[in-house]
Amino acid sequence: MELTNVLISPVVTEKSTTAQAMQKYTFMVRLGSNKIQVKNAVEKAYGVKVKDVNIIPILKKIRLAGRGRPITKRRIGRKAIVTLAPKQSLDFNKIKVT
Predict the structure, then answer these.
(1) Could you say which residues of the chain have pLDDT below 70?
(2) CA distance 97 to 64
(3) To bridge 1 with a disulfide, which of 5, 24, 59, 77 should be the other Cys (CB 3.0-4.6 Å)?
(4) CATH number of the domain encompassing residue 55
(5) Within a 10 A sphere around the Cβ of 63, how many other Cβ atoms?
(6) How far apart are CA 60 and CA 9, in angstroms?
(7) How far apart are CA 19 and CA 61, in angstroms?
(8) pLDDT, tens digit, for every residue of 30-58?
(9) Is the separation of the CB atoms in 80 and 38 below 8 Å?
(10) Is residue 73 one of the residues assigned to a domain?
């Protein structure tokens, strides 16, 4: 997979912003990607050294409305939490183009 086929977007929430103090950055990734592909994509895109990658599945959220009709509120996906090496930081706005 290419770089553009692995990383979808960074996740910027209050929880992920506080985790950045511990060199942990959160990205939405494609369903078919694995930890090695995510690591290579982040290192290539941002020019940093990745220490660890954790991948979390995001399940589909459904609620029932009316006469038991299901309504999907959130689609299925995957989230990757990338831990950088010590003394490294990442800026989501500065992507290294090569």
Answers:
(1) 1-4, 97-98
(2) 45
(3) 5
(4) 3.30.70.330
(5) 9
(6) 19
(7) 25
(8) 998 999 999 999 999 898 999 999 999 99
(9) yes
(10) yes
